[in-house]
Amino acid sequence: MFTVFASLLVGVVTGRVGGRRVADAAGHLLSVGLVVLLFVMGVRLGASDAVLADLDRIGAFALALSFGSVAGSVVCAYAVRDVFPSFDADGDVAGAEGDSHTFTLLVVASLVAGAAFGALFLPADALSLVERATSLSLAGLLFAVGVGLGADGALVSQLRTLGPRVLALPVAVAVGSVAGALLVGVLLGMSGSAAAAVGAGFGWYSLSAVIITDAAGVHLGSLAFLANVFRELLTLLCLPFVVHHFGRAAGIAPGGATTMDVTLPAIKRSAGRGAVVPAFVTGAVLSSMVPLLVPALLAF
Question: Is residue 217 pLDDT above 70, yes or no?
Fold first, then answer.
């Protein structure tokens, strides 16, 4: 959490001092940095024995639950889109459709290449270095996002403009995530409380998996881990499509709790600078809800 805030803050200060020239340079590096981060994430997935061991057993359920959470959150965010006219009505969506398709292909290729490298070539004792590389890559990307915000100078004014309305988005995402996972889970024959708890992880796979494992056992915990990992990956794949067809507010929804860190640079790239502040607030609110909502849903 400290790294997230520190990276953004240093970037904002740098952008304020350096102006548009520095911001333009940071913007050019953003796409390259995203591809590098996705490759490293793929390496981590491919090198994880826990993920590989569970793919055959519960992978299909996890993928279905993650899709339900993403779809539900997009629907609910789209329903409250009129709360955010100041940034959703702006038609300057970053990137042309062809560029979005190219970026999606790069995302898939980076993840697949990273996963293959992690599974086939990465030494077991090098995983800690990969985790450190992930943290450094993420910090660099958030710094670049902060530079753009600082150079733009609209951060404070946007917060004032949105005001308390900005909280409507995380609430909508939370409702949609839980409802979508619940619907899919019931159709798959799961218990409603278990499916809803998995959806309430909001993409924060580490914490939600630990909480659910402690409360409901390793099987459901593993399912929650994979479902929320898949949600993060689905977010990176579907962002251009969601922004293009449903608008910027809905484009924030798929990432859930990760919109304050891992998926924030991708949101900026797909939805523009105006989506960064609502995305960060959404991620922070949802992250604070995970340790409260997951145990509460499991108790039903």
Answer: yes
Domain boundaries along the sequence of the chain: 2-298
Task: Report the chain's mean pLDDT, rounded to a whole number.
Answer: 81
pLDDT tens digits, 93-152: 444 444 555 666 776 788 789 888 988 888 767 877 877 777 777 778 778 777 876 776
The CATH code for residues 2-298 is 1.20.1530
Three-state DSSP string of the chain: CHHHHHHHHHHHHHHHHHHHHHHHHHHHHHHHHHHHHHHHHHHHHHHCHHHHHHHHHHHHHHHHHHHHHHHHHHHHHHHCHHHCHHHHCCCCCCCCHHHHHHHHHHHHHHHHHHHHHHHHCCCHHHHHHHHHHHHHHHHHHHHHHHHHHHHHCCHHHHHHHHHHHHHHHHHHHHHHHHHHHHHHHHHCCCCHHHHHHHHCCCCCHHHHHHHHHHHHCHHHHHHHHHHHHHHHHHHHHHHHHHHHHHCHHHHHHHHHHHHHCCCHHHHHHHHCHHHHHHHHHHHHHHHHHHHHHHHHHHCC
